[in-house]
Amino acid sequence: MKPHKHPEHTDNIWLALEIGNSRLHWALFIGETLCSGWDTDYLRESVIQQLAECQTLNDLLEKIFPQGESLTNTLPLCPLLIASVVPSQTAIWQTYPNTHVITLDQVPLKAVYSTLGIDRALALWGAGKTWGFPMLVIDAGTALTFTAADANQCLVGGAILPGLGLQFATLGQQTGQLPLVEMQNSPSLPPRFAINTIEAIQSGVVYTILAGIKDFIEVWLQLFPDGKIAIKGGDRTLLLNYLQALYPEITARLIVEPNLIFWGIQEIVMGD
């Protein structure tokens, strides 16, 4: 976890929102300190319009923060920094006052291509600025992505494939005979050679994803022996348990940090 500075009363308060493929991810900052983070489902446009009508930050937090975060009720609505990979969701947030949508050209990475996802760019920038470049970021979310930059903060490149849940769902929905297998939260690996269909699907998906992660990490370390590796995303804990069981020497190299995108946003905000 990135070390936090003690917040000063004079520091600015601001909200960061990552609009992901499946959910909304929130962070409340006081200056450079990430005070709270939480996830919610997508909000309806009518709800967002209600948020825009809130008079104070406390009114806003009461509507979107499930743990009931409370601040001085006289604080005005703070800036909202948005990083989004879902354009339709981005559009409906424009009604919220003091909204700033972060775009790829604001991320100081070099040699990026125009269609690089803002989530991948920000996570890589946040990880690299926190722990140093070269940096490889593995995002184990709806999609499983690999994104890397060298010591000069130049994009090396990466890869995208369906994540665990998406692979299970695709097999269940796009085949006539195979069942829909839900994500398994057990830390135990499935049997490699299964003798029933459900475990066969689990084996095929899990072991090929783990082999792919191992391969990317090994090639990365061949290219950059001193390179860092960070992992984030909703499936990170499950995959880390599996990786630890199979490849403990590789797992020991991983920096686990779910808030990489927020650190990237913070670097941009504080750098202004």
TrEMBL record:
InterPro entries linked to this entry: ATPase_NBD, Type_III_PanK
Pathway: Cofactor biosynthesis; coenzyme A biosynthesis; CoA from (R)-pantothenate: step 1/5
Chief site of localization: cytoplasm
Transmembrane annotation, as ranges: none
Subunit-structure text: Homodimer.
Family recorded in the similarity comment: Belongs to the type III pantothenate kinase family.
The protein's name in its UniProt record: Type III pantothenate kinase
